[in-house]
Amino acid sequence: MGISTRKLALAIALGASLVLPAASSLAQGQPLTIGAVLPITGTSARAGIYWRNGLELGVAVINEQGGVKGRHLMLKVEDNASVVERSVTAYRKLVDTDGAVAVMAGISGHVLALAPIAIDTKTILINASGQSPKIRTAGPYTFTIINDASVQAEQMAEYVFTKLNVPEVGIIYTETDTGVGPMMAFEAAFTKLGGKVVAKEGHGLQNFDLRSHLRRIKSKNPKVVLVLTHQEFAGPILQQGNEVGLNVQWVGLSTVATSTLLNSAGKLAEGFIAILPEWAPGNASARVKDFVAAYRKRFNSDPDIYAAHFYDAAFVVAKAAAQATDASPEAFRAAMLGVRGANAIEGVAGRIDFNNQGWVRKPQEIVIVRNGAYVPLAKQ
Amino acid sequence: MQLSANGLLRGAFYVLLAVSFGLIFSSTRTFHFAHGATFSLAGYLFYTLHQTLGWPIGVALAIVCGVGALYGIALEMLLYRPLRLGRAPAFVIMIASLSAFFITEVFLAAVYGDGLLRVSHSFSTNFVGTGEFRFPLLRLVIAGTSLAALVLLFLWLTSTRAGVKVRALASDPELADALGMVSQTTRYWVFAVGSVMVSVAGAFYATDLGLVPHMGIVALLYGSVAAMLGGIGSIAGGVAGAMILGVSMDVGMYFISGQWQDALAFGILILVMLFRPSGLFARRTEAMEV
Fold first, then answer.
1. How does pLDDT run across A6-65, given as a tens digit for each residue?
2. ipTM of this complex prediction, to 2 decimal places
3. In whole angstroms, what is the distance from residue A165 CA to residue A161 CA?
């Protein structure tokens, strides 16, 4: 019994639709799909919720303003459960099945794992929170809209050495890309200035008992200790540091300078010095005030710096999509690189002005925790 | 000196884990993976009762112990006993226990989320002592509680009918069963008492370090390592193993690095096992099927 030609054609078409990747939504007259691979569950869930909220708000604002050339943005968020392997699966699903033209992600290890796939699939990967300097060279389709740790570390090293006049520091860091890259960048910058890192203690993600690490640091008598950990560790570090009698000036980069630190460390966070892009909920800029007000209205809580970054990420994609000369991935990438100079975006988390490699160097400010909030200490 | 003191305080916490794990294993020959789940469940329940609902610490702890005991009994009644009656190999029972462990952790993550939660209490912010010998009150409370628990356990094992039967079961389960010296109730007692001890540890952990859904692995790893170090089936061995582990880890991490914490614990275990496979303080026993 033969199969009819018509049935055969239908079968081939059905099979092809299952096998071939979904066409990018850039090429079709339909909503523009952007994706996000975020830790909605898992150890980084607290952060991930802020990121998702910021992105959702950004997409909502863009759509309220008419979308991109009349096309609405459709946001698809996939949960990676804070696991790198799931980020990879989620990314492929967003690109292959959902036709996402760009995918937002965070956490350095995840971004670095996704970057090769972004190259293979020629989709834009926007890193809005990962700060490993390795991401700079992750590939031509990876764009970073946050100062990476090298930028922050260099400035913090200079601040500690010249303004705090401290020549010896200790570092406690998470043994992931989030901690190792910044640790190396800081040490290099600090040593170059003439300083010395007298103690370095790395810890794993499963271990919240860091007393032994802190005692080792204490034994070297640094006056300043740099905290380069995932944000959920920062509070326990301050508490356990107090417990073991480690009385130092605590400093950190933007990775830890979040509401998680303030909530978990309470009064012990007072005096914590960090480096942040020029942004804070109390910033006088109208743009920031509007963002904060909109965020509060929608989510009934205050945003943190990373919510602001992810909010800005939506606008970066919208701008590039509007300026792409055609629907090809190459044109979209070129449009992303075109977000610079006169075409830069004044985001709520600072100016997004890409260099030739697709990363930014935003002005930063030193902040200090006073009365449970981050307030500017000095402009860098 | 200060390192040793801190190590002993760390060891005092491990005592609860080691002795409870050893009690269950030696009496029932069950590698009770789900012991870690009892630990986590207790921690989260304590957080809910004391931190969220504001119940007094004593009341919260009593309820936590009760629920922990019931959880342990339920595992024996609904999981281990049916498997034993069905002549399942010990390996299968171990895997079933591991499954119960993971299911409980996923449940806790679903209910409470994956972020770090913490019980705030003045125990963890007040200190006793001065200078280098300044210790958080909480750690001293843990040490005191461990000591009290050991005394109560010893009295129970030596002075009560149920305790004597548990000792008989631990000494030779096949013989005890054959002679009809012990009943299923004895096994329930084992799981109840062991679960109460680890529940107390879970509540302390919630206050000292905070709660994450995978924290049960801490109880399992350090409890089993300390129990094996000192000798499964020996309370004194469990105590000694816990103290040795605590001091060795604190001193070791100070001179090597905190990164090697877990490797240090297992390194110590391997070293001891090579020379004393039964543990430091156990009588030499025949190899047990696990």
1. 555 444 444 444 444 455 565 556 889 999 999 998 878 888 999 999 999 999 999 999
2. 0.73
3. 5
- Nearest Cα neighbor of A318 from A63, A92, A135, A129 is A63
CA distance A282 to chain B (A): 27
The pTM of the whole model exceeds 0.80 = no
> From its phi and psi, is residue A13 left (phi > 0), alpha (psi between -120 and 50) or beta?
alpha
Give me A299's structure tokens.
Answer: 């989510």
- The alpha-carbon gap from B241 to the nearest alpha carbon of chain A, in Å, equals 20
3-state secondary structure of A129: coil
C-alpha A288/C-alpha A281 separation (Å) is 7
Residues listed for chain A: 380
How far is Cα B176 from Cα A37, in angstroms, rounded to an integer? 57
The closest alpha carbon to B44, from B125, B102, B116, B101, belongs to: B116
Cα separation, A208 vs A243, in Å, equals 14
Choose among A45, A216, A264: nearest Cβ to B114: A45
Instruction: Provide the pLDDT for residue A1.
Output: 42
Mean pLDDT to the nearest integer, B127-142:
79
- In A307-346, the residues whose Cβ lies within 8 Å of chain B are none
φ, ψ for residue A79 (rounded to 5)?
-85, 125
Give the helix/strand (H/E) hosting B129. Answer: strand B127-130
Tokens standing for residue A293: 């007000």
Distance CA B72, CA B198 (A): 10
Q: Is B283 on the interface with A (CB under 8 A)?
A: no
Cβ atoms A237, A225 nearer than 8 A: no
Domain extents for chain B?
15-216
Q: Do A212 and B116 touch (CB under 8 A)?
A: no
Cα–Cα distance measured from residue A48 to residue A78, given in angstroms and rounded to the nearest whole number: 11
The answer to whether the beta carbons of residues A265 and A235 sit under 8 Å apart is yes
Is the alpha carbon torsion for B170, B175, B177, B182 positive or negative?
Answer: negative
3-class secondary structure, B54:
coil
Would you state the structure tokens that stand for residue A114, as one six-digit string? Answer: 């996704």
| Per-residue pLDDT tens over the stretch B137-179 | 888 888 888 889 888 998 998 899 888 888 888 777 777 777 7
In the 8-state DSSP scheme, what is residue A31? P
User: Which pLDDT tens digit goes with each residue over A276-325?
Assistant: 876 666 666 888 889 999 999 999 998 988 999 999 999 999 999 999 99
| Nearest of A177, A172, A36, A50 to residue A107 by alpha carbon | A177
Distances (CA, A) of B27 to A224, B22, B198: 52, 8, 16
Question: Is the alpha carbon torsion for B214, B215, B220, B225 positive or negative?
Answer: positive
What's the rounded Cα separation, in Å, for the pair B182 and B12?
A: 31
Distance from CA of A37 to the nearest CA of B (A): 17
